[in-house]
Amino acid sequence: MERRALLATIGVGLSGSGCLRLTGTDDESTVTGSTSRPSETPRSDPSPTSGTTSETATETETATERTSVAELACANQKPITPSDTDDWQQPHNGSRNTGYVPGETVGRTSACVAWRREDIGPVSSSMILSDGFVIAGGSGDEGLSAFKRSTGATAWATTETLPGDDLINVRDPIIVDETVFVGAQSMRTGSHVFALNLETGAERWRTTVVNETPTIGGLRYDSGMLYGTTYTDGTTNAFAVDTDAEATAWHTELGNTGTPPVAVDDGIVYVPGDRQADYGLRALDAETGELLWGAVDQEVRGAPTVGESSVYVTTPNDVGPKTLFALDKETGETRWTFETLNGTNGSAVYADGTVTFGTSDGQLYCLTTDGTTKWRYQNDGARFSQSGPVRVGDTLIAGATLDQSGLYALDATTGDLRWTLPIPAVDMTPAVSDGVIYSSYRTGERYTYNLMAVRTD
Prior knowledge:
Layout: E1 13-14, E2 20-21, E3 57-58, E4 100-101, E5 111-117, E6 128-129, E7 133-137, E8 144-148, E9 154-157, H1 158-161, E10 168-176, E11 179-186, E12 190-197, E13 203-207, E14 215-216, E15 220-222, E16 225-232, E17 235-242, E18 247-255, E19 263-265, E20 268-272, E21 281-285, E22 291-295, E23 305-306, E24 310-314, E25 322-328, E26 334-340, E27 349-351, E28 354-358, E29 363-368, E30 373-378, E31 390-392, E32 395-400, E33 406-411, E34 417-421, E35 431-433, E36 436-443, E37 448-456
Parallel strand pairs: 3-30, 4-31
Antiparallel strand pairs: 1-2, 5-37, 6-7, 7-8, 8-9, 10-11, 11-12, 12-13, 14-16, 15-16, 16-17, 17-18, 19-20, 20-21, 21-22, 23-24, 24-25, 25-26, 27-28, 28-29, 29-30, 31-32, 32-33, 33-34, 35-36, 36-37
């Protein structure tokens, strides 16, 4: 249920720290600009409960010409040599959707585009990684594709490995061992959960979750089970598929909530809901699908984020108060809330006792787990609400849309800006390995999606 902002143009300048800075001008020129530092830096805010616009760092804008994506290419074209990774095999790096990898690092000073693949179809999934591939799916008939992390070359695509199926509505694939699992609609046989060979894309098996289901949401995996949501004729079902039995273990009708992404942790499946649902978040027993509790009287679109004792959900920009909820993950009781002027469709990052999320008015908030503001970053020309940020070591990576779209890297402990890369709209959550960021970006009013690998130093 992603709501995307129509936006096509970006611009760029330079800050004194060597970071690319963005301005809203036209498309095809070179990088020029000021060498002055931003006039303010993020500040701590001792207020524990509410998000206001006071004490907010605003980046200095400079009137400069735009850059083209080609001009962001790395000057040193040394090849990317991927190492094996167990991270980012599910969106937001796991079934809890924490978005955090403590053992990885990214460069602190600059970023450039190592390779890019143009027009890969309308992407509707977060990036996931295997040892050798970055995998992405789309809502159009391009289906699901695996691209080589080293070069961006296509390793396989379901348009070739599943001829005649013409997969559409591909959402959030995941990798388990040597298998890719994905929910998608076949134009030949209907919607299924598909199991594909990771190396070749060949089909291992498929199963129907609920009869005549046209749409299946993004999957999450935990302890041999796949969890997700389906939608048909105004009714949403949450479901579990047993990967050994290759069949549905249970499904639970939830009313009209669309196909939101779920979270799974410690025997509980957390399912968001839209404005027509009874609750913004439901908790189901992972073994039986039984409803344990419901909470939040507002719509929730982003995947829930599960911390040590709380589950965190955000509310969107266009419905009701804009709020981050911290709920007891066992009971659903509200522990605290944090209100903002604008909302988000994205998920929060949970890391080292902090919760970080972005909003549509260009703000990134970092809170402690008691709701106290640790820092806040603002750029009025950016929108950080379409995809959730991720954290790699001590660096926060956030994708942005709007006039100052691109990738932003911030110090995760202070909120200080480290660098920006002024790529057109980044509205899907990236993945990071070996200091390389794999991300999609879109251009044009018709949403042409492209894939890139960003090297950082």
